[in-house]
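User: I'm putting together a small comparison set for a docking exercise, and I want a reference complex before I start. The sequence is below, and the ligand is adenosine-5'-diphosphate. Could you produce the 3D structure with the ligand included, as structure tokens?
Assistant: Of course. I'll restate your input first, then give the structure tokens for the complex.
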Amino acid sequence: MGIEIQSVSKRFGTFDALRDVSLSVAGGEFLALLGPSGSGKTTLLRIIAGLEFADRGSVLFEGEDVSDRSVRQRHVGFVFQHYALFKHMTVSRNIAFGLEVRPRSTRPSRGDIEGSVDRLLRLVQLEGLGGRYPTQLSGGQRQRVALARALAIEPRVLLLDEPFGALDAKVRKELRRWLRKLHDEMGITTVFVTHDQEEALELADRVVVMSKGKIEQVGQAQAVYDAPATPFVYDFLGNTN
Ligand code: ADP
């Protein structure tokens, strides 16, 4: 599903978190929002999700204006950096939650929930761990549960906010490869926030580089690295090398 962001601005108090940002995401694309801390990446992701609302501008899903719709009405899957799993629930219950918030028309019946949870556990390679609690899992496993819960919603868009930020380098690398493969199999439109340029290059079809609430450059990942369009992009990519 394609996303259009049209002239979106967002202010917190006197601080302009986003200044007149416009962007198109093609259906099935894997897009990375890259930039230093405080550049507005999370704010833009949350505005796409409906977790935050723009002061000005619009968000369109497949040509339809969803700017005033809630996160639930927008039907998106969101994965946070710190898992945000329900600690008192088993892995299976966490995933079942995603199934239960689906619109009534696509919600599995009570009897089908277990089978759907098992399919999702297989998809994220956590077979046999459905009875565990989040605290009994590693960070990488927890983030795969969070992803399974997001996918259980059958989202139109998958939005990930630094999902591997809390994990160590080796697990990050494994999960990146795995997420990209999963994306290629499912073809779901994905927007991924990161401040790690290597991660953006490895994962994304296109990269959006942000600074101070504005987009500095958008392009194919390799092209952005090969030909930074502004001094900011040049410095940002150069300095983090
Ligand atoms: P990034 O994801 O690129 O690190 P953010 O979008 O999280 O940037 O934040 C951009 C700026 O907006 C930050 O300086 C942050 O302090 C500010 N900000 C974000 N959310 C809020 C909020 N709810 N209230 C006040 N300020 C906020």
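Strands lie at 3-12, 15-25, 30-34, 56-61, 64-65, 76-79, 157-161, 189-194, 206-211, 214-220. Residues 12, 15, 17, 35, 37-43 surround adenosine-5'-diphosphate (CB under 6 Å).
User: Thanks, that's exactly what I needed.
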